[in-house]
What does this fold into?
Amino acid sequence: METQAGEPYDLKSFDVEFKGVEFSYKDGVKVIDGISFTAKQNTVTAFVGPSGCGKTTVLRLMSRLYDYDSGEITIDGKDIKTIDADSLFDKISIVFQDVMLFNTSVLENIRLGNRSAADEEVKKAAELANCTEFIEKLPEKYDTFIGENGAKLSGGERQRISIARAFLKNAPIIILDEISASLDVENEMAIQGSLNKLLENRTVVIISHRLKSVENADKIIVMNEGKIDAKGSHDELLKSSELYRTLIEKSQATEKFAY
It folds into this structure.
C-alpha cells in the first residue's frame, strides 16, 4: 500500500496510540482487526503471540512502513498519516533482527544513525552499545572494513552495531523487532546490557519470542489472529490469559531444549 504524504511537524511528546486500527494486505483479509492500545512514553510495551498473529505488522504500521486501512494511529495526539516521513522517522529508531550493514568501515556503519555526527560522537555511541571491546580487536579498529553485510562480524557484533546506530540517532521512540532471535545466551546478555541504557526515558515497543526477555515490560500485549487477546503485566497475564500461559510454557520448553 502506498503511504500518503504528510506535512512537516515537530513532535513534542511521544505516547503512541492505536484506536480501532484495521489493516489488510489483501482486500477483505484483515491482518490487524480493530486493535486499540497506548504505548506510553517512558515505558516498555511488549507484544507477544503465536507466529503470524500480526505483531510485526503492528510495528510496521507504527513506523509508517505501511498505512492502516481504518482507525487511527497518533503520536503527540497527531495522526501519523498527516505527518511527513522525515518528521516521523526523525523521532523513531528501529532495530530489526536482520541488521543491514555495508562493506565500509565500522565507523561509517555506525554513523548511518546520524550522518552529521563527529567521530567522537560515533565512538561514544559504540561504547554505550558495548561495541568497544570487539572493535579494538579488529585489524584497523574503527577503520576496519567489515565485509558485505558485515560478513566479518559475528551475529552479536552486528546486532551491537545496529544498537550503536540507535544510540547515535537518539530518537525518543525505539522499536525492537525480535533482535535476540538468532543470538546465543552470552551475546544476548551483552546486548541486554546496552539495551537497558538505550531504553531509558523513551517510548519503547518490543517484540520477542523469548518471553523471559519481556517479563519486566511495563505492559505486555498478547495478540492472536490480528486481535488483542489480553494486556497487562506479566503477573496479571499469568492469572488472566490462558494464551499467555501457553506461550510462556512453550518458550520455557524451547529454551531448555536450546541451552
